[in-house]
Amino acid sequence: MASTSLRRRRLCVWALALLVLDAMASGGEARALSPTEEKSMMDLHEQWMVQHGRTYRDESERRRRLTIFESNVKYVESFNREGGRKYELEVNAFADLTEEEFQAGYLGFRPATRSTTTTTSGNRWPFTYGNLSYESLPSAVDWREAGAVTAVKNQGHCGACWAFSATAAVEGAWKIARGELVSLSEQELIDCDTGNGNEGCVGGYPTHAFEFIADHGGIAGEAAYPYSGNPTGACRVGGASSSSAPRPAATITSYAAVPSEDERSLLKAVSRQPVSVAIDSHTLRFYAGGVFTGPCGTNLNHAVTIVGYGTTPDGTNYWLAKNSWGSAWGEAGYVRLQRDVPDKKGLCGLTVDASYPIP
């Protein structure tokens, strides 16, 4: 289950949610809220709005969001009451969204045919870690401990997970190869990496981002080309003059794909550097902590970066993934996904489409 530290950091409004739901549950089957229970849910929603800085355009919208919020609160509490899983859920910043709204605004992976994803300069490499001995790999790896992972970022209401997954992988590769950790610009990718299937906040493909970085001489740093969460309509590199265009803060020469549906090969790659992967994430939006074990499918719709792996004290093997939904989500912005599952595609399809940059 989730750690004690995780429980301590839960939303301050959660105790009120429990009181509301206890009252509702005492009546047996689902029923309409009494005036007192409705007032309590309204209070809970108001506290949640303050917690997350949420406002609505009018009373009609507020009432609609309250209904959605109530449904999500019931779902989270029902899930946690059932128990028996290695992870828990919580009422987080996504609690007033429908599933359709969440998927439309906070994901952004757009799969492409792997056989057609070659760089314009033809510099995609074959898998470079195939000769590593699986038996000799470290039992646990955490690239944060090696200083190869920047702080968790937040893509906001922009389907640019592809850019965040790619930059996190390049940040790690650059640190490992050059000894310098620098936060890189997702906004450059949103503004400039277009015309190849990547469409900014509408979605994209991490390997196309690697191609862009390799073919255009690198990528700017976050400080020089900061994130706005929206396409600016103008790329600040390439056509700009050398005096005004941000200079590359990191470069790569190529990228490689991890053999699909091969968890051992993915382990080899992650033992050497962070790796971009695609997952089916729709059941992850309320994840609070612990080792996520599903259920989930393999409809790849979100990209994250695997930055390590390990085993819990109870013997559950897991992948450690950096997400881009802010540090308030999950385990300070990270999720642990069960490793060594029977399905060759991995949990949530994470072995299907994995790749990494080569400095």
From TrEMBL:
One of its GO terms (biological process) is proteolysis. Gene3D superfamilies: Cysteine proteinases. Keywords: Disulfide bond, Hydrolase, Protease, Signal, Thiol protease. InterPro entries: Papain-like_cys_pep_sf, Pept_asp_AS, Pept_cys_AS, Pept_his_AS, Peptidase_C1A, Peptidase_C1A_C, Peptidase_C1A_papain-like, Prot_inhib_I29. Pfam families: Inhibitor_I29, Peptidase_C1. CDD domains: Peptidase_C1A (cd02248). Residues 45-102 form the Cathepsin propeptide inhibitor domain. GO terms for molecular function: cysteine-type peptidase activity. It comes from the Eukaryota. Residues 1-30 form the signal peptide. The keyword Protease applies. Residues 137-358 form the Peptidase C1A papain C-terminal domain. Belongs to the peptidase C1 family. This is Uncharacterized protein. It comes from Spirodela intermedia.
